[in-house]
Design goal:
Blueprint lengths: L11 E3 H8 L3 H10 L6 E4 L2 E5 H10 L4
Antiparallel strand pairs: 1-3, 2-3
C-alpha cells in the first residue's frame, strides 16, 4: 500500500490542502487563482486546479495583502 505523502512535502496542493497549509480560506484561494490564472504557481489538469506549494509560498511572502 502506498504511503501518504505529508502535506508539507507535496509538490502541488489541491485548493483544500492549500487552504489548510496556508491558513487561507478556500474562497480566497480560488479568487487568488482566478486573478492569477497565468501565474507559475497554478496548474490546471482538466477541471482540477493545483497550486505549486513552494512557488505559492514565495508569492505569499511577497504579497502585501491577500
Amino acid at each position: 500500500m502506498p504511503k501518504e505523502v505529508p502535506i508539507w512535502e507535496k509538490y502541488a496542493l489541491t485548493i483544500c490542502e492549500a487552504a489548510l497549509y496556508f491558513r487561507i480560506g478556500e474562497t480566497k484561494l480560488r479568487q487568488i487563482v482566478e486573478e492569477n490564472s497565468d501565474a507559475e504557481f497554478v496548474i490546471r489538469i482538466g477541471n482540477r486546479t493545483l497550486i505549486k506549494r513552494k512557488i505559492f509560498e514565495q508569492y505569499v511572502d511577497q504579497a502585501k495583502v491577500l
